């Protein structure tokens, strides 16, 4: 059974640009969440999608957005990049989400560097 | 914001020794999960313990949960160099509908030969 797949693994962007990250969850999982990890703030919840609907959102500015497709694959987008957006972005997959007490599986992450 | 803290922040032991990490959290929970993260990599799920469980084992891992003290511990027995990583506890929201995990600050474990 394939795990959670995130692409790209590494990318470098310039301030002001936008970026799109992709996540393919484990087959059969309908919940996809995104987390940002930085040395200063640790692991922070961005948002969760379930059956193509955003179900929860963390405390991030509107520049951070996402979506989920009918096959449960998800993308997140960050517009007008700032230096502080440099981070490891982790995608998490589960059957029905953390609220249901499911095991949450993570991908290898996408390393974003903003210069 | 972090749910709580992990203690110690860093731990250095020799191969074969046991490693114990502690996690404290602030609000009621349904479940607590432990993860391992190797440098620059994603999170690997280790074990999930439910709020009505007090102890759980998986191979060399032993997790305890004390909901009255809002704390959990992860014990790795007979540690190996390959156990070198950061370890995080993560709690679900308990009550409410916010379907997210809240992570502790993590413990960096170094196992030397």
Can you give a write-up of this model?
The complex is a heterodimer of chains A (115) and B (113). Helices cover 0% and strands 52% of the residues of chain A. Chain A is mostly beta strands and 115 residues long. Chain A has no helices and eleven strands. In chain A, strands 2, 4, 5, 6, 9, 10 and 11 form a seven-stranded mixed sheet that branches. Chain A has a four-stranded antiparallel sheet with strand order 1-3-8-7, with no helix packed on it. The mean pLDDT of chain A is 94. In chain A, a hairpin with a 5-residue loop joins strand 7 and strand 8 (74-78). Chain B is mostly beta strands and 113 residues long. In chain B, the strands form two sheets. In chain B, strands 2, 4, 5, 9, 10 and 11 form a six-stranded mixed sheet that branches. In chain B, a hairpin with a 4-residue loop joins strand 7 and strand 8 (71-76). Chain B is globular. Chains A and B meet through strand 4, strand 5, strand 9 and strand 10 of A and strand 4, strand 5 and strand 10 of B.
Number of strands of chain B: 11
Bulk shape of chain B: globular
Task: Point out poorly predicted stretches of chain A.
Answer: none
**Termini separation of chain B:** 36 Å
Mean pLDDT of chain A: 94
- SSE pattern of chain B, N- to C-terminal: EEEEEEEEEEE
Oligomer: heterodimer
From the alpha-carbon coordinates, what is the Rg of chain A to the nearest angstrom? 13 Å
Please summarize the sheet with the most strands of chain B. 6 strands, mixed
The major sheet of chain A is characterized as: 7 strands, mixed
Share of β-strand residues of chain B:
over 45%
Strand content of chain A: over 45%
Mean pLDDT of chain B: 91
Give the helix tally of chain B.
0
Which residues of chain B form runs of ≥5 with pLDDT under 50? Answer: none
What is the rounded Rg of chain B? 14 Å
Structural class of chain B: mainly beta
The helix/strand class of chain A is mainly beta
């Amino acid at each position: 059974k394939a795990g959670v797949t995130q692409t790209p693994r590494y990318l470098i962007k310039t301030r002001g640009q936008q970026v799109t990250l992709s996540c393919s969850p484990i087959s059969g999982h309908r919940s996809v969440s995104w987390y940002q990890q930085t040395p200063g703030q640790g692991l922070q919840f961005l948002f969760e999608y379930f059956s193509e609907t955003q179900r929860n959102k963390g405390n991030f500015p509107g520049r951070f957005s996402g979506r989920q497709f009918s096959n449960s694959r998800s993308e997140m987008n960050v517009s007008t990049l700032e230096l502080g957006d440099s981070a490891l972005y982790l995608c998490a997959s589960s059957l029905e989400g953390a609220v249901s007490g499911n095991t949450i599986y993570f991908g290898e992450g996408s390393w974003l560097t903003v210069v | 914001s972090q749910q709580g803290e992990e203690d110690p922040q860093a731990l250095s032991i020799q191969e074969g020794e046991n490693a114990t990490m502690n996690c404290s959290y602030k609000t009621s929970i349904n479940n607590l999960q432990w993860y391992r993260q190797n440098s620059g990599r994603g999170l690997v799920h280790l074990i999930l313990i439910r709020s009505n469980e007090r102890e759980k084992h998986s191979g060399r891992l032993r997790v305890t949960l004390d909901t009255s003290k809002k704390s959990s511990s992860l014990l790795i027995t007979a540690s190996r160099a390959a156990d070198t990583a950061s370890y995080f506890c993560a709690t679900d929201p308990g009550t409410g509908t916010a379907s997210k995990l809240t992570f502790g600050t993590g413990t960096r474990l170094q196992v030397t030969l």
